[in-house]
Design a protein that fits this description.
EC number: 1.2.4.1
Number of strands: 7
Oligomer: single chain
Enzyme class: oxidoreductase
Keywords: Oxidoreductase, Pyruvate, Thiamine pyrophosphate
Shape: globular
Structural class: alpha/beta
Radius of gyration: 19 Å
CATH class: Alpha Beta
Largest sheet: 5 strands, parallel
Order of helices and strands: HHEHHHEHEEEHHEHEHHHH
Number of helices: 13
Strand order of the largest sheet: 1-2-3-7-6
Number of domains: 1
Cofactor: thiamine diphosphate
Pfam family, one: E1_dh
Bound molecules: thiamine diphosphate, magnesium ion
Distance between the termini: 51 Å
């Protein structure tokens, strides 16, 4: 059966895949196979799953430091994403990008991005390019609450509104930028930033894949019809650490009660309740075998040859000249 990501089974498959992917990735960080750590997307899966289910393959997305979920939901091969995290030659970007730079242009994944807020400008540019082409492709920018005070994102919103670009701004408000709360960092409201530019802006439950899909669909339809950008603020909760490093550093900024309460509404459980037990078991088994194969693929893959370290750095295929000079 073809994968239909916007059905109840499809949405469940996507959130389940992202959850298990992140669990396996954390294990590989602990074992030392993924060097440098990751920002787990655990708890926020409904947003990537819901938004990407409203998109076509030729639509584009830009992502963040917490980007595995977006990349997987847009259709990237989990085995190649995991190999990328593990720095292997078979990785999505030949092991050169790692967790925060995964990209697959063929699937419209313009890249995760470690610079908070920076992807807004890339998305507006991609949307402008899509419009110049004459089609009805849309561009989505995923970003966290930590990005809403970054000038570049506000500049991108301004231009997107002014030029009625087909952009969907998706804010994943998980309440924290690292350890800083939204209450301590954000004056006014997040939707108020969109409204200031005349951008239709809504706040939705970011723990329910179907709610996110409905909101994304409305925004995507508007963008395709020439109605310009939209902002969807998704209220969510990060179940795990900001970064895997946090477990070792024992940073304390959320008390146990808050984390317990925050985890009560679990997107995997919420979406799973819409399936029969049999459907759930079938998807769970399928996802487990996909991830087992992905881990084996990543760990069996070779590291890139150091002699080729300067390959693939430029779109033109050129390497820097020996002795510098560009
Ligand atoms: C421009 C910039 N400033 C600071 C950082 C360091 N940094 C990395 S993640 C992060 C927090 C981002 O919070 P948010 O956007 O809410 O995303 P979340 O981590 O909650 O998913 C910060 C400050 C950065 N990567 N880029
Ligand atoms: Mg945040």
């Amino acid at each position: 059966m073809a994968h239909a990501p916007d059905t109840d089974v499809g949405l469940y498959r996507t959130v389940r895949l992202i959850r298990l992917f992140e669990e396996r990735a954390v294990e590989l960080v602990r074992s030392g196979d993924v060097v440098g750590g990751i920002h787990p997307y655990t708890g926020q899966e409904a947003i990537a799953a819901g938004v990407c289910a409203a998109l076509r393959v030729d639509d584009v997305i830009t992502s963040t430091h917490r980007g595995h979920g977006h990349v997987l939901a847009k259709g990237a091969d989990p085995a190649r994403v995991l190999a990328e995290l593990a720095g292997r030659a078979t990785g999505l970007n030949r092991g050169r990008g790692g967790s925060m730079h995964a990209a697959d242009f063929g699937l419209g994944i313009l890249g995760a991005n470690a610079i908070v807020g920076a992807n807004g400008a890339i998305t507006a540019g991609a949307a402008w390019a899509a419009r110049q082409e004459g089609g009805d492709r849309v561009a989505v920018s995923f970003f966290g609450d930590g990005a809403v005070n970054q000038g570049v994102l506000l500049e991108a919103m301004n231009l997107a509104a002014l030029w009625r670009l087909p952009v969907l701004f998706v804010c994943e408000n998980n309440g924290y930028a690292t350890t800083l709360t939204v209450a301590d960092a954000v004056a006014g409201t997040i939707t108020g930033r969109g409204e200031a530019f005349g951008i239709p802006s809504v706040t939705v439950d970011g723990m329910d894949p179907r709610t996110v899909l409905d909101a994304a669909r409305e925004a995507v339809d508007r963008a395709r019809a020439g109605g310009g950008p939209s902002l969807v603020e998704c209220l969510t909760y990060r179940f795990d650490a900001h970064h895997t490093w946090e477990h070792r550093a024992r940073v304390r900024y959320r008390d146990d009660d808050e984390v317990r309460t925050g985890r009560e509404r679990d997107p995997v459980v919420i979406q799973g309740a819409r399936l029969t037990g049999e459907e759930r078991e079938r998807v769970d088994a399928e996802v487990r075998s996909t991830l087992d194969a992905a881990v084996a693929f990543a760990l069996d893959s070779p590291h890139p040859d150091p002699a080729g370290a300067l390959d693939h750095l430029y779109a033109t295929g050129m390497r820097p000249r020996p002795g510098g000079g560009g």
